[in-house]
Amino acid sequence: MLRSFLIYLSKAAWAQNMVTGWKFAWRTASRFVAGTKIEDAIRAIKELNAKGINVTLDHLGEHTSKPEEASDATNEILATLDQIKNSDVRANVSIKLTQIGLGLDERLCAQNLERIVARARDTGNFVRVDMEDTPYTDKTINLYCQMRQSGYNNLGMVLQSYLYRSEADARKLLEDKTPIRLVKGAYQEPADKAFPKKADVDANYDLLTKIMIDAALAAGSPKISDDGRFPPIPAIGTHDPDRIEFAKQYALKVGLPKDAMEFQMLYGIRRDLQEQLVREGYQVRVYVPFGTHWYPYFMRRLAERPANVWFFISNFFRG
């Protein structure tokens, strides 16, 4: 019930206007968001790189309502790619397609997406296309495939283990050696589209992990690039120790090298686990969000764990 309510609030304009006006809200959100400016994000990346951790950088934003907003968001992502190159940090970028116009016009979104992947190619970088809620699943995959068919090989996808369809999507995408970040899913979905029980989501996560690792082996175990920007095929995006342990043990069993798989986690969450995995010799990438449009992302982080809600409430009473 609480999770459903918080996800509803993540999309409610009235709630966004209210919460973003509270000074303490940003104090709490800054645990999960690197800052509002690119300079803040670059500092965070350098700190993580110094610990042996790579980064995927997300200039926050989604569901733009005007073509001009989608164009502005695209330009900001282009500037982010340029800044990564100029700063010589070990980072790539993640983007949401509704940020660059998917909810407005698919052709507009395709044009903006091609501008981004072309700039990434020119700057020697990689683009991860995030998965949003199910009204956009088919459109997101279709646009990804359109870019691949246009000759762009420097992008990958995200799949969500709580969706029934993700096994079929994974098998299809992996035929083209698509780099996939696997997550559980952070949106509210109906029971006819998503597993309602956590145990089923976890079981499907492990199945998809196995499918990705097998596909990486079949593709010759492509490794992370020397500059840390191009990921291997399987990216295990979770803070769940059981899911991480399954991936480690299965990869060991079938012989996938540690640098042919990476674990991805969110900025500000389980830093101890991130550093532990690095010490064990695994590749770790942290998803670092930044920007002024932090509210929807922040509310989904609250929805994921009750402990995050109590952290927010404690800041409320501190003023």
Account of the protein in words:
With 319 residues, this protein is an alpha/beta fold. It folds into 2 domains: 1-33 and 294-319, no CATH class; 44-290, TIM Barrel (Alpha-Beta Barrel). The protein contains 13 helices and 8 strands. It has an 8-stranded parallel β-barrel, surrounded by 8 helices. β4 (155-160), α8 (166-174) and β5 (180-183) form a beta-alpha-beta unit.
How many beta strands in the DSSP annotation? 8
| Main pleated sheet | 8 strands, parallel, barrel
CATH architecture of the largest domain: Alpha-Beta Barrel
Looking at the chains present, what oligomeric state does this protein adopt? single chain
Q: How widely separated are the two ends?
A: 27 Å
- Helix segment count? 13
CATH C-level class of the largest domain is: Alpha Beta
Roughly how much helix do the residues carry, as a percent range?
A: 40-55%
Radius of gyration: 18 Å
Strand percent estimate? 5-15%
Fold-level CATH name of the largest domain = TIM Barrel
Low-confidence segments, given as residue ranges, are 315-319
In short:
An eight-stranded parallel beta barrel has the order 1-2-3-4-5-6-7-8, surrounded by eight helices. The chain has 319 residues and is of the alpha/beta class.
